Structure formats: structure tokens, C-alpha cells
Fold each of these.
Amino acid sequence: MTRADATAAVRNPLAFIAARWTPDPRTVQRAALAALVMSVVIVVTGGAVRLTGSGLGCPTWPKCTEDSLHNTAEMGIHGYIEFGNRMLTYVLCAAVGWAIVAARAQKPYRRDVVRLGWAQFWVVMSNAVLGGIVVLVGLNPYTVAAHFLLSTVLIAVATLMWQRTREGDGAPRPLVGKSVQQLVWFLVAATVLLIAVGTVVTGAGPHAGDSSEVERMPLDWENVSKLHAVLAWIVVTLTFALWFVLKAVDAPQGPLARTRELFLVLLAQGALGYIQYFTELPEVLVGAHMFGSCLVWIATLRVLLSLRERPETEPPGLPAQQPDATSPSMAGPR
């Protein structure tokens, strides 16, 4: 590498890499999928921190203690769990960074895909700061809820980026009518409300995230849980109605398949929710329910994104393709 190359790499490393490497489309897709998977993993491990009572395993932030960047042996298992979850944030950053690099190096350059990668990066940074605030305010339930909701934003952006890497840059073409699209938007809104109320259930429930006295939301936990169950049934009903409408209008297979997947995920998540409720919220089932909420959100977004298609665009300046001499139009009477 020459001195000029080194200078260019320092000034704009992404452009330097893009000038020397063109990833296969599958590589870009896998990078986007890795970022999505890690965005779910960080939610599940964050739930494990809470459910094991390790939320204040590192009692301050950005250090783990006043005198140490990392946990110490005296802090016990809770310190290892909390500090381990913090370290996973760097793995998430690496996955998002890999997605950004792969998207930036792809040819032709796709600005919206790169911007989605950067959007993930800034959401991760924002949520890291918010996670620090959660620790500094002693696991205030409202900040914990905001921390989880920002993670759902990250999952949404990651899902959209993964979808964009698997389709072209042509103008989106709707596959269903406006009435079906409106029904899906109602479904998305109901799912958002379902997830938001789920954070209230957690904030008012018994799993405070630490063994010490932690503030809870001043709400009746069982009443909020019942509201959460009603919203879940609304989402299930909307999903079943959507599948019925799609079948009635003879919709393409894509929206039908995504709707069927969402319905199955909702049934599994609902069954898990009732089991954990009637078994007094065992930690393992609560953690599985958090993982299920991520899957419900991803499946809902995939239904929304399946309502349109984006074909590949033709590169500009290419001559029109000439018909082959052996084609039926050139071969005389058939």
C-alpha cells in the first residue's frame, strides 16, 4: 500500500474499501441478516439480565464500578451477566458495521440500503446511552420500557434493510388493493400497541431486574395483563381476517405465506403467554416470551413488506436487446 492509499483509507475508509472490493449480493444479504439476528439476541440477553436480577450487577455506567471498567470477582454472577450483556453491544456494533461496509461496497451503489445501515448504527448508539441511563436511575421502569421499545425500532430498521437487500431498486408495485393495505396498517398499529402494553406489564410486574427494592409502575399488574391479552386476540383476529381476505381476492403467494407465518407465530406466542401467566411467571418462560415478541414484530413487518414488489432496474445507457433469430417472432409461421 502506498502512502497515498494509506491517506485515502484514513480519510474515507468506506470509499477505500468500496473501490477495491465488490461483495456478492448474497454477502450483503447475509450481513444484513446478521445485523437483524444480533438485534434480537441483544433483546433476549437484556431480558436475561433482568430476569436473573442482574440489572444492577454493574452499579454504574459507563464503567462497571467507580474504579473498574469491567466487573470484579467480588461482584459475583450478577456482575458477569450484566457486564457480558454490555460486551454483546460491541458484537452488535460489529454486525451492524459489517452490514454498512458490505452495503457501501456493493455495485451499483444503493444509497437507501446504506442509509438503513447507518440508521441501525445510530439507534444502537442511542440505546446504549439509554441503557446507561437505566442503570444510573436504578432501573426506573419507564426508562426500561423505553429501552425495550427502542430495541423494537432497531429490529424494524434491520428487518427493512434485510428486505431491501433481497429486492431491486425499481419503483414499488403494489400486489394488493388499498383496502387490504389499510387492513395491514391496522394490524401493524395493533401490534405496536400490543408490544407497548407488554412493556407496561413488565414495568408493573414482579420481575424488577434486581434483588433490591426497585420502583414499579403504579398499576394493577393483573389488569394490565388482561388488557395485553385482549390486544393479542385483536392482533390474532386481524391476522386471520387478513388471510381470509387475501384468499378471497386471490392474492399472490408472498402475502399469503407471510400472513400464515405470522398467524402461527402469534398462536405459539399466545400459548406461551397464557402458560407463563398461570404458572406465576417463571423466568425461563418470560424470557421465551420476550424472544417471541421479537418474532411477532418481525413477522408483522414482513407481512407489510410483502404487499409490494420492487423489481431490478435496467442500467441506463444499454442498447435495447435484439430479438433472437430463433425466437418464434423471427422463425416464420408456427
Amino acid sequence: MFGSLSKPLSRRVLPGLPLTLGFTLLFVSVIVCLPLVALILKAASLGPAEYWRIVTGPRALASYRVTLTAAAFATLFNAVFGLVLAFVLTRYRFPGRRVLDAMVDLPFALPTAVAGIALTTLFAANGPFGSALSALGITVVYTPLGIAVAMAFTSLPFVVRTVQPVLEDLDPALEEAALSLGVSEPRIFARVLLPLLAPALLAGVSLSFARSLGEFGAIIFIAGNQPRSTEITALLAFIRLEEYDYPAAAALASVMLFAAFVMLVVVGALQARALRYTGRS
């Protein structure tokens, strides 16, 4: 009588599945798919020749170079610093740890325009950081370096918050076993921890890169927005919108959308391979 009641429920069973699935599909369609479809249709209203002329113009190509280069440097910095920061927050206890942990989420809560103004003030030639860097011959504000700094600031939490939970769930017995065998700590990190962290790190890096590609508010204050020098693609698309050239703005946005999509597909494939390597697929 009670045997059937004691049978555990399948993890795939979700009460109210038709309602929740319908709500989810409606939300995704209206909030995500509809704007993307509108963007693609607006870009498709251009003829192939006109579309190609817009997306391969000298100013557009320069904006791609600036955006992708700065995003790559910001993501590389976040991959290293974010991993170290997640490791420190997870493995060490020290005064102010909770404050530092809360500050990681500051770029999420801070309006990007405010972040851009703050970064410009800090790294200006007469600012606290900018004056010290100017003495070394390094200029941040109104240079591509400033764009990379703004991108790194706004996208760092993606790496930290993706890697941190995985670090917390790792079994310390793996490291203890390696230490008992006489393996050095750098080798343990490279051969034991890093392969286990690779899927989460790849996910965080991909989100950080995608966030950097779409950053706008924090960059326009620190970049200087000089065409073919410090002008990002998002700003160029915004300029086309101010000129009421909506098809051209959609064409430029579609290029960045395609770049982000390709990047996510590649990183997804690498992440799946890493999961198979670690046996957690």
C-alpha cells in the first residue's frame, strides 16, 4: 500500500510543467527572440551590396579592431585576476574578506555611466592612479587602454562568480592526496585543480568577453570616442541611430551579434570537451 508512496520522484518531473514551460517560452520569445528578430529583419532590409558596404567601411572596421582588441585584453586580465580572486575568497580567511567578496558584485549594482565617470576620474592625468601612471609614461584616459580598463571592470564578476562555487565544492582530499605523494603546490594547481575548473572558467571567460563586446556606458566617458582610434562599435551604432540611419545601426549591431554568437558556440564546444575530460558530462 505504502510501497508506491515511498518511491522517489523522478528529477525530471516538474509540477505544473505546461504552465511553467509556456511562461518560459513566452518570456524568451518576447524579451530575447523578438528584439533579435527585429534587428535581423532591419539589417536584412538593406541589399547585400549596401550591407557589405556599411559593415566593411573604414570606420566600421576600425571600430571592430578597437572593440575586439580591448575586449580580448580585458578578458585575458579577468581570466587571470578573476581566477586568483576567486581562489583567495574561497581558500583564505582574513579581515575584510566579506567586504572584498561584496565588492566583487559592485559592477553589477553600479550604473555603467557612473562607473565610467569614476574610472575617468581615477585614471585621469591628475587623478590618484593616472598621475602615478603618467610618471611612468602610461596614459589610460582617452586611449584604447582606457577602454580595456572599463571593460575589465564591468565584466570581472562573471569570472569570479562562475569559478567561486566550483572551487568551494572541490573535494580537498584530491589536493591532500597529491601533497602526500610529494607533488608541489604549483603542479597540483596545474594538473589537479585547473582541469576541474576549466569548464567553469571557460563559461566565465565567455560571459566576460560577451559583456565586454556589449559595454557602452562605462566606455564612452573614458575612451574619448575618436573615430578610427578609440571609437567602439556600440558607439558607432548609436551614432547611426542619432542620425536616424536605423538600417546601418542594425547592420553594425548584427556584426557584433554574430561575433558574440560564434564565440559562445566555440566556447561551448570547448567547455563540453573539458567536461568529458573531467568525466562530469
